[in-house]
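3.2 Worked example (two chains)
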Amino acid sequence: MDDALIARLATLRAAAPALQHAANNAVMVVTANLELLSRSAPTEAARRQAGRALDATQRLDATLRAFLALMRATPGEKPVAAPAETIPSVLPLLRAVLGSRTPVEMTLAGADTPVAHDAAAAQVALLALALAVAGKGEAGVPLDIAFLPAEPGLTLRATPPATGGPCVDVVL
């Protein structure tokens, strides 16, 4: 990686907490106003419209939170935590990259045991797979993500939707 890219990523990582704070404040104001409007609009059509805008705001909030959390993550950091609590936060990013054409299914069975793992590295691996398979394969065929027992801990397996691509395994 060249020095300019490293410097750019370091700057973005350093700015992520302030960006998250600004985004949280803006989303909170928009959400509060849309909730009020969805309850008090004079017509049912206006209430439904406000409800759809509220849903979109919540999806935007989840996507921004996931992206900024990934930007803030310390590379190589391996805290002890249950993968079922750390890995799913990438789902909004996967859904954004894959679009509505490719659903994402994550099975969390067996992922509730705390293990030392680099959640950000696993999330980036899943994001790279999503980028590789986006727009390929049959519509409606999901990207399957599961946790498998392995030594010493767990393996995260992502199976791409019928694109001919291989499964991606990330040892946690």
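3.2.1 Second chain
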Amino acid sequence: MFSYGTTPFSMVFIVLRSRFGGWHAPYAWLCQVISVGLVLFTTIFVGPAALELPHALLWVADVFLLILVFFQKPVYQEQVHFDVKIQIANNKKKNMLLFAIFFLQIIVSRFFYSFFVYSMLAVLADLISVYIEIFHQAITAEG
């Protein structure tokens, strides 16, 4: 099961994160450790458990998750000085990617249901990363 989940999870996570932003580790080595740990944890533990859940429940959760991500604006680190024009463009590209991911989930899941589950988990991981960055920025602004 590990190899079937690694590719869709990694592809969706990386592509969406490039437009959605999120928390970044302060050191390159820590980024690598967290990234590998995230992929391993998802593909060894979370993914197989999610595959056992009712399909209808996962589809409802996926649609809800995609709606959350659609309305959440991208979040970037303070060091990135994107002007409003670039932020709007990234948000549009992020939303186009969401539609493409959902379309692929519908088509590919007919043949490979695991693609749907692992791509959904990638979207969830991206959203969590964005919420962590929002929290991090709020703490930094207070302190």
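3.3 Remarks
DSSP finds five helices and no strands in the chain.
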